[in-house]
Amino acid sequence: MKTVLIVDDEQDIVETIKYVLEAQGYKCICAYDGEDGLKKAKDTIPDMMILDVMMPNINGFKISRLLKFDSKYKNIPIMMLTARSQAEDKLIGEETGADIYMTKPFDIEELVSNVKKLCPTD
Amino acid sequence: MADVILFTNSDEVSALFSDILKKDRHSAFVVSSVDECMKHLYSQNVDGVIIDYSVGEDLVSLSRKIRVVGKKKLPFVLLFAPVDYENELLFRYIDGFIPVNAIKSQIDATLRSALRIEKNICELNQNNSELAKNIYQLDVLYNTSSDFASTLNKKKLIDLMIQSVQRSISPTFISVYVKETNTLFLASNRKPTYRLEEALRLRAALNYRVVYQSSDDVDNDLSGLKVEKIFKDEYAEMDLQLFNYDNIFSLISLSDKNYGFIEVFKEADFSQEDLTCLQSILKQVSSPLENAILYQEIKDTNTKLERLERLKSDFISIVSHELRTPLTPIKNSLDIILKGMTGNVTEQTGKFVQMAKRNADRLSEIINDLLDLSKVEAGKLEFRFEKKSIVPSIDYVKNTFEQMAKDKNIILSADIENDIPLLYIDSKRIEQVISNIVSNAIKFTPGNGQVSLKCEQISVKELLNVDFYEQTLNEEYDNYVKISVKDTGIGIKLEDIPKIFDKFQQIENSLSRDVGGTGLGLPIAKQLTQAHKGLIWLESEVDKGSCFNVAIPVMNDLQIFKMNMNLALCNAKQFKKTLGLVMLEEKISSEFIEKIKEEKLVVPNSSIQSDEIVLKNDERVQYICSIQDADENSLDFAIKKIQGFVKSEVPEERQNDIMYSKAVYPKSGLTTEVLLDKLNKNLKCITE
């Protein structure tokens, strides 16, 4: 069973994504802040990560960059969730690292299909 | 009146001259030795010396000494000797000769003449030195006025004022109180002692009370007074008894506004000219001082405004982010329920969940539109302008709405004229404009209606009679491309037409409730149109339909260049950057300007953002280049390179045909027009 690590400081968002992905046969690990997310990523090495960009302390882009530049973790596919503001658009251009971006609010069907693309169920 | 020394040993001689002198009320002082004579000369203001040749002293050396020593004046020297007295050397040092057997009236005449001449010479000298002083003071005033005019910096003005007061009236001490900053400036050559400083502080406080006693803004007793000492020699201290000094006190005021006061101290007396000079300096400084204070206020207000604007745009970004965040789980949860993932959904449940989802979607759209609109209004929306055809954009929009029109059985057509000229547009934004209008047209047209797009070229004359709401027709452009969207919809009431481009103004009627939409589509279309220097307006009749029109100007290269410059200036203003402009002009031909352009002597690096244009007429060719972030130094560097190129590549007889000019925002001007004007005015020969 494939594991997906969901990192977002909004608990409700994490819960809905978890509900939907578990229904599709994925195992979900949750983290509610960047540092915890980074730690869990390194400890569990998931098959895929869903990262929120705007989080306090350490944002999604930084986490993505840290993992992508580390040979141990660079193969974990990453999906970023952004609220599509101009500042974030700029950051996307500068600090790429993620494989897919989705803007909030997103369509859950689209999310599921993207997850299946990056990390197909066995 | 006059003071004359008689150097004689003879009583008769002494009596002779004393009588004559006393008759005219002069005083005669008789001496019988050189020492006595010199002593008297050192201590008194002597007008003249009469030497009796028979004293037997070394008269030559005595005469020379007299010439050197006079305390304030140059006393005359007369020799009393027989007619046949010979002494060539002595005669060189004396001013006159009284023969021994001259009669009284002759002696009288000679004395009077000598005294008169001496008096005139004295007056002349005095006048000369006063004149010299006046000229010096005028010179100081002249220089100060241009110095004062050259700065808007308050502190610098005060320094300049103190310097010019020092130069022109040479006081021992200057004390200046500036009300606005509650600062006392003490200026002198040497550092004041603590005691002196305290004395001056106290004096300033007393003056303050006197000056501001009757005004409303006396709010302190100088307890928070800051003292700034300006002095050259830090190692020597000076202390003085203020009451031993002459002083002038004056207010620093401009009409009814007072900025402070100044007091100057001098050990010797101040003259009337000194007072006049000081007053002139103070008059000169008041106006620049007021300007400096106003300038500071303007700068402070601007900084506050900029900070507020930045906060506002951050506010909008933050708010839209905060609004989108809870929307996400709302939509997701509703989707999860609707898909049946939580269990069976009854018809009733489904109906209300659908309603919630529809409105969540609508809220999402409103947030997007609001964000777009605020970005456009704040000038923060990034555009990508290009000279291209607008036709593909019209086709694109038509294709996008084919299905929506088909669903309502509405005929969607597009009639595009041939030979539509190229326009300077951001095609994505133009598509947004046309989409918003077409979307409205389809929404507000009942089934089986028609929506027709038309694209044609028109001249500015056809726009002269149109009523544009809150837009002005800029007669700079001769031709426009007009895109119209005509529908057979419900139309708009006459009194509602002016409000059509206002935010959230969905007109009240039964259809609009089902139609949805954010109410921001048309305001966004208007802002985007204006960003293209275009115009947007409509005609409408209730129950017949509406016709929305957008006109985009056809721009020539110069107009495009100016538009880009304006955009670059807005950008520079917002992010506090500079914009540099270089102009090269070549008489008659464009041979070398082309080369200069090719060799990239002005903008070498392709990653530097710049716009350029070449203008030609019968007499000359001009090349203008605007470079973002360029400042005086980088422009000078570029021009040096061009000069080197010209000197080596252009034949001598043609070198004077090439001229250059430069301008920098903000230093040389704040608008496109001013900067381009400066470029044309400041053309210089390359070989300078």
What keyword list fits this structure?
heterodimer, A: alpha/beta, 43% helix, globular, B: 688 residues, alpha/beta, 5-stranded mixed beta sheet, 18 helices, 23% strand
Polypeptide structure, described:
The complex is a heterodimer of chains A (122) and B (688). With 122 residues, chain A is an alpha/beta fold. Chain A has helices spanning 11-23, 34-44, 60-68, 86-94, 108-118; strands spanning 3-7, 27-31, 48-52, 78-82, 100-103. A 5-stranded parallel sheet of chain A has the order 2-1-3-4-5, with helices on both faces. The longest helix of chain A is centred in the first third of the chain and has 13 residues, at 11-23. The radius of gyration of chain A is 13 Å and the shape is globular. The termini of chain A are close together. Chain B is α/β, with parallel strands linked by helices and 688 residues long. In chain B, the strands form 5 sheets. Chain B has a 5-stranded parallel sheet, with helices on both faces. Chain B has a 5-stranded mixed sheet with strand order 8-7-6-10-9, sandwiched between helices. The chains are: A alpha/beta (122), B alpha/beta (688). The A-B interface holds A 10, 12-13, 15-17, 19-20, 23, 54, 83-87, 104-109 and B 317, 320-321, 324-333, 335-336, 341, 360, 364, 371, 375, 380.
Give a quick precis of the structure.
The complex is a heterodimer of chains A (122) and B (688). Chain A has helices at 11-23, 34-44, 60-68, 86-94, 108-118; strands spanning 3-7, 27-31, 48-52, 78-82, 100-103.
Spatial order of the strands in the main sheet of chain B?
A: 2-1-3-4-5
Distance between the termini of chain A: 7 Å
Coarse structural class of chain B: alpha/beta
Spans of chain A of at least 5 consecutive residues whose pLDDT stays below 50 are none
Helix content of chain A: 40-55%
Strand order of the largest sheet of chain A: 2-1-3-4-5
Estimate percent helicity of chain B.
40-55%
The chain pair forming the largest interface, with residue counts per chain, is: A-B, 21 and 21 residues
The Rg value of chain A, from CA coordinates, equals: 13 Å
Order of helices and strands of chain A: EHEHEHEHEH
Q: Shape of chain B, please? A: elongated
Largest sheet of chain B: 5 strands, parallel
Mean pLDDT of chain A: 85
Count of helix runs of chain B: 18
Backbone CA Rg of chain B: 45 Å
